[in-house]
Amino acid sequence: MHRIILTRLAQGVLTLLLASIIIFGATEILPGDVAEAILGQSRTEEALATLREEMGLNRPAIVRYFDWLGGMVQGDLGTSLATKRPVADMIESRMWNTLRLALLAAAISVPLSLALGLWSAMRAGGRVDKTLAMTTLALIAVPEFFIGLILMKVFAVELKWLSASANTRPYFDFWQNARALALPVATLSFAVLAHMMRMTRSSVINIFTSPYMEMAALKGLPKRRLVVLHALPNALSPILTVIALNLSYMVSGVIIVETVFGVPGLTRLLVDGVTLRDIPLIQACAMIFGAVYILLNLLADVLSIMANPRLRYPK
Amino acid sequence: MSDATEFAKPRASVFAGLRLTRTAIFAGGILLFWLVLALFGPWIAPHGEADIISTKTFAPIGEGGWLGTDKLGRDVFSRLIYGVRTTLLLALVTTVISFTFGVTLGFAAAILKGWFDIVVSRIVEAFMAFPSTLLALVVIGAFGTSITVLVLTVGLVLSTSVFRVSRALGYDIGVMDFVEAARARGEGTWWILTREILPNSMAPLIAEFGLRFTFSILFLSGLSFLGLGVQEPAADWGLMVQENVGGLFLGSSAALIPAACIASLTVSMNLLVDWFQQRQQGETVLEKIDQ
Amino acid sequence: MSDILTIKNLRVEGRPPGGTYVPIVKGVSLNVAKGEVLALIGESGSGKSTISLASMGFARPGCRISGGEIWLNGRDIMKLSPHDRHALRGNEVSYVAQSAAASFNPALRIGKQVIEAPLWHGAGDAATLTATAVDLYRKLDLPNPDTVGNKFPHQVSGGQLQRLMAAMAMSCGPDLLILDEPTTALDVTTQIEVLKAFKDIIRDQGTAAIYVTHDLAVVAQVADRILVLKNGEMVEEGPTAQILHDPQHEYTRTLMAAVRPAPHLVDHVDASAAQAPVISARNITAGYGALTILSDVSVDVPAASVVGVIGESGCGKSTLARVVAGLTPLREGEIKLDGKVAAPSVKDRPRDTLKDCQIVFQMADTALNPRQRIGDILGRPLEFYQGLKGRARLDKVGELLELVDLPRSFASRFPGELSGGQKQRINLARALAADPKVILCDEVTSALDTVVAAGVIDLLKTLKDKLGVAYMFISHDLSTVASFADEVVVLYAGRVVEKGPSKAVFSPPFHPYTKLLLSSVPEMRQGWLEGVADTGEAKAASAGSVVIGAKGCPFSNRCTHVISGTCDTVAPPLRVLSDGLEIACHLPTGELPDRGL
């Protein structure tokens, strides 16, 4: 088992490297280079040449890639083209806002979706199950910004219970923070809740087609025990994968939510970077999100491996 | 164990016994409605998509146009009708692109196996190691926003999922005895692909097309909402939401209406795909305990 | 009333996904007395399994009990609430399924699953129940009874798991035990020990049982009474001896007639030794990945003759067919088809080589493309190999259908509209469309009902006489092979242990494994099981399991005649005895098992 986990970890590192190549490559193959982007329309050939020399753009791409990668590893994320500030500083000040949103949403949506998914599975074919199935099916297909806007319209504009802006201040007390964060966190949770719930249900239901579930049912065991004790351990691996997938999906959910509610977070920074074509900023943000995504998936895989008795107890 | 004569099906076809449900008819009706609007939009819309019809911006429903005006005083109703065209067409093109790449490569990987499979699968895995939105943002960040970049990027992002589905189908069906029989006969790769594997993967591929289409609409409208997708003055639903968010606090529904339209489109599509897949499913042991 | 179970006029309906309900069981009545074993026999679709589950008040997903009374321990359980009815399961009545490997939850320890039902129903605390379970393990002859409960299902062999499932069913001390084809998935040599264990434990505990099977010989060993079913209706019922020796109903007689005569009774003429072989496989070694399935296997198939390849699951017999067909690459060795060396891979073989050697697969269902009409399925090889098109192709398809005794009108049908036996005939017709010299038949009758299988075998014989085609007939079923093959090859763990003319292989002297195989085939004689289960051979065989890639003789860990120091270190070479018989065994010729069965 240890060997399988180590292999999986090594694969994770490899994927991260590949991801870095894709990010670096995608921002490198564009026509022109960073120097052109900085100088814009008013460039002269001499100015371009000087700047290229200054920024080391005349070196081959491979050298620059390793230079960039080395910097990344040491925490040197480069300098923003737009603000001329170190990218690391810009990210640091924003990171907490995004992380707080994502963590809160995860803390709410993961247990809730698991509970609802198992409940729905236990009532398979019943009214609860059918209602939940329809609702979540619809919810999956609704764009996050629609959910966000509806919530904002109802709770912030009409009822005025909650704040439409998620821009918190250091001097905010608990309730002020809660008022500000409730809507973005709810929107983000909705976005992943439906999907995770459905996948939990279907993973469990899927297990119920196996002969051993029929066997367990014919022992006269109650449904609760069948679902939790017999089906869940076998559905663990797909469920973990789905959780990891959805947590990392929050990355894209967060982008929308931060825009809707004006959160000064990391993804806003990225979107601004894309609008301004601030390459070092895009690269750094993309690497961070990519790493989180890969790490989450890796974690899910390792946990599934550890939960598999075939691997835990070899013959 | 099973006796074929007992549950003999009259005819094996993808559309055998449609067994429409109320939900399916409802969802299909909505999709049809939008499709008709998309086809005949310019003849139905009272104004052009960029025409400013009123000096009053963010006019409420019933004032100016049927559905009010937007932030520049344009007719929301007309822009909505033009928008469905853009939205559906872009989603269709991206989905077709993703299927062209995904299905071709997926089946090729499943049939050719060996190094081709390894190389392509690894590359796709690396692409999938990113959140799809992030990938699109990086590419758009590098190339700037244009319809071509947009369509190609989203098509590429979507194709990774199509690749996975097709490859799995190719592998699953490729090891079945009837394909082995064709292989033993000496049939070439092309025959095996087009005559043996493809006809037997139509149902899951149709479902996947529906799902990717939905995803494409969501994805593109999300990008437009961020201001990185379709650019003004063209009418696109996601873009309309972005333009008019500010009106929300002024009592205008100009942002909510297109958002709701997107939802109606994607939810209907999802319901239809679900109906298509559910037709195959039966009961579970759990349900039998209560009987 | 001494009846544990009385079923009156039971009706069960089933529904394919999205379809409408059709009757599966059409008014069956039966009763099981205390301590009695009632066997339900019938072919697939007879409703035997459905009835057995209905006696627990249970219907499989997609089915429902639509009428009748089910009296268990003096009350009609269909009148109980679903909750109360569910409480009977795993308490008063328990269930043993066909495949233990699939019926144990892979994520839970065996012991926990064994005592789960009585623990839940409040029959005792975990410690007492575990002690009872260990007793059961001991009675069932399981190795390491004290520790086997701590293992996970994947850590235990198939035969042991099957016995553990019996322990799981018996742990709640049920009044009624349902056994649903509990030995069908096992190899014959494993079946004996499991069957014996089941029989002993039922007798020992005095439990009433319903035993569902399609195998009459198995029924003869365990049942007190037999109920014959066909298409959801009762055909005949009576004491075991009466049904076996004096069946009243026409259908029961048909069933009896289809049961193969015991193998050693068949006498065979050695037909075609003089002709050149159509298949000549020399020293074949093959496998998948790091796994070696076949090592150093040589087989010849003379023209217009039948060579039977016998072996149990995992012995490599299907791999042999795939290697000959070029579907699985060989690592070492050489294949000659009709005297010419054939490329190892099907991709490199020219069409006339491919044409000569056709393959027919085991699962008739999956071997036909569900989206092609029969006319196209048969027409394609005609076009591919012979260039037939249009009218000529259509005519030939009709001829082929008639050749396999099917109406010409089938050409317009899809495979889903055919029964299992009909599909297998189409598979055969597709092979014949190439006008081959030899057909590789890979377990072609194994998935079919006995009567249908007998029909297919008859067809194979007719075709051989009519067309002069040869068969490499691969099967785990000794009786079928013995009644049909001119020559026989016995495979064990990927090696040839014995081969020669069928008559010589099936008469002494034997390879010890052949002897075990022959004596393991259940006979219709009541009391056969007790006689065979107590022999030294059977005991030794159940002690070990198949090891692939063993250093010495692969059978040495299950053999009574093992010569330690020789058998477990040196692989025995194939040695030619009289009459073209070859045996791979270290025993001197005179000491090879030779007594009759």
How would you describe what is shown here?
- The complex is a heterotrimer of chains A (315), B (291) and C (597).
- By secondary structure, chain A is an all-alpha fold.
- Chain A folds into 2 domains: 2-73; 88-300, MetI-like fold (Orthogonal Bundle).
- In chain A, 78% of the residues lie in helices and 0% in strands.
- Chain A has 13 helices and no strands.
- Chain A has helices at residues 2-28, 34-39, 45-55, 61-73, 87-122, 127-141, 144-158, 174-207, 211-217, 223-260, 266-276, 279-307, 309-312.
- In chain A, helix 5 (87-122) runs antiparallel to helix 6, helix 5 (87-122) runs antiparallel to helix 10 and helix 7 packs antiparallel against helix 8.
- The radius of gyration of chain A is 24 Å and the shape is flat.
- The model of chain A has no long low-confidence stretch (mean pLDDT 83).
- With 291 residues, chain B is mainly alpha-helical.
- Chain B has a domain at 86-281: MetI-like fold, CATH 1.10.3720.10.
- Chain B has 11 helices and no strands.
- The longest helix of chain B has 37 residues, at 76-112.
- The two termini of chain B are 25 Å apart.
- In chain C, helix 7 packs parallel to helix 8 (188-205), helix 8 crosses helix 22 (536-543) and helix 14 (374-386) packs across helix 15 (390-403).
- The model of chain C has no long low-confidence stretch (mean pLDDT 88).
- Chain C contains 22 helices and 22 strands.
- Helices cover 34% and strands 24% of the residues of chain C.
- The longest helix of chain C has 18 residues, at 188-205.
- Chains A and B meet through helix 1, helix 6, helix 7, helix 9 and helix 10 of A and helix 3, helix 4, helix 8, helix 10 and helix 11 of B.
- Chain A: This is ABC transporter permease.
- Chain A: The chain crosses the membrane at residues 12-30, 99-119, 131-154, 174-194, 239-261, 281-307.
- Chain A: Pfam families: BPD_transp_1, BPD_transp_1_N.
- Chain A: Belongs to the binding-protein-dependent transport system permease family.
- Chain A: Its main location: membrane.
